[in-house]
Amino acid sequence: MKKKNKILIIFNPHAGEKRELVGKGYKISIKDIKSIMKKYFLKADYAITKSEGDATVLARNAVRKRYQIVLAAGGDGTINEVANGLVNSNVILGIIPLGTFVNTARMMAIPRDIEQSIELVKIKRVIKMDLGTLTVIKGKSLAKPYYFIETSGVGLDAEFQRHFDQFEKKHFGEIIPLLRIIFKSHRFQVKLELDNKVIETKANLVVIANGPITGAGLKLAPGAKLNNHYLTVVIYNMSQWSTLRYFFNLIFNQKSDSRRITKFQTKTLNISTKQPIAVHAGATLFGQTPVSYKINAACLNIICGFSQSIKKAGFL
Questions:
Q1: What is the assigned CATH class of domain 132-298?
Q2: Cβ(129)–Cβ(295) under 8 Å?
Q3: Helices first, then strands: H and E counts in the chain
Q4: pTM (2 decimals)?
Q5: Distance between CA atoms of 5 and 63, rounded to whole angstroms?
Q6: Residue 226 and residue 263: Cα distance in Å, rounded?
Q7: What is the chain's pLDDT, residue by residue, as a tens digit (316 residues)?
Q8: DSSP 211-239
Q9: Alpha helix (H) ranges present in the chain?
């Protein structure tokens, strides 16, 4: 009987199609990964995703089959799907960053260089990470809670996610849809029930964050930490022109203006609005308000880079 390997690599063949990973027109393949794994004397089994949600199913099967490490070879979507399959287990998540932005790799100080990221698997430096948890959508409890490493958003953020990647890469044609979104948007009345307070205000965007950056590497939730056991709730209450200026500054200068936003920390959160407002989590549209969240503390084991680098960047 063949002995099972301790590592499973879940590979998204479509990851990284928008960027050059090694050289002009070249994209990382399973063959490339196998070659580097062999160089570091790491044996693995391989599984290829075919459609959305496959990575979560494969990760859950990996827990059942008692793999020790599951490597997500893909972008932030693949990584988040794998995290949903490994949550609350002893199986360790590792990252081979193949996507366009790979915010999770950035927050975990994992190099974009594929060989260096695999070298970290050999070193096996592991920390415990929190996950944000979406538990209720449209006022109904989800059969399976949805976990997110980065952020969830109520309002503008759901539409912005579709255009940030191209805009960040200086594809200025994306300015037009962004402008349309902003100028068609309106501030809505929202009620937020946190651990120890209730807030009623107007907002055009509410960000519920586990980590500070999301989308095209934008810091929508400055000050959020991946292991402080709290969600960071950020309320954006701006006019259309102020919103436009804020996000242009964020996109081009990578700077958040804390004076223009309001932040709170909480372990649980209920959000309700007078009119149904769009909700996304992990860049996936889920539905509309009312919605509920909680923090799932220290529920994911993840391989990281040097913790000093992560702390210096403010992610832990």
A1: mainly beta
A2: no
A3: 10, 18
A4: 0.90
A5: 13
A6: 16
A7: 455 689 999 999 988 655 444 443 457 899 999 999 999 999 999 999 999 999 999 999 999 999 999 999 999 999 999 999 999 999 999 999 998 889 999 999 999 999 999 999 999 999 999 999 999 999 999 999 999 999 999 998 766 655 554 544 444 455 566 666 666 678 899 999 999 999 999 999 999 999 999 887 888 999 999 999 999 999 999 888 888 788 778 877 777 766 779 999 999 999 999 999 989 998 788 889 999 999 999 999 999 998 777 776 667 7
A8: SSEETTTEESSTT--SSSS-EEEEEE---
A9: 30-39, 54-64, 76-86, 103-107, 114-123, 156-160, 164-168, 175-184, 240-253, 307-313
Tokens 């366009």 -> residue: 100
Tokens encoding 141: 């409890």
What whole-number distance in Å separates Cα of residue 289 and Cα of residue 158? Answer: 13
- Give whole-number Cα distances, 205 to 81, 157, 290, 310, in Å: 25, 7, 14, 27
**Is the backbone peptide bond immediately before 290 cis, with ω within 30 degrees of 0?**
yes
Domain 7-124 is classified in which CATH homologous superfamily?
A: Probable inorganic polyphosphate/atp-NAD kinase; domain 1 (3.40.50.10330)
Phi, psi of 192 (to 5 degrees): -115, 120
Range(s) within the chain of domains with CATH label 2.60.200.40: 132-298
For tokens 């096996």, what's the residue?
A: 124
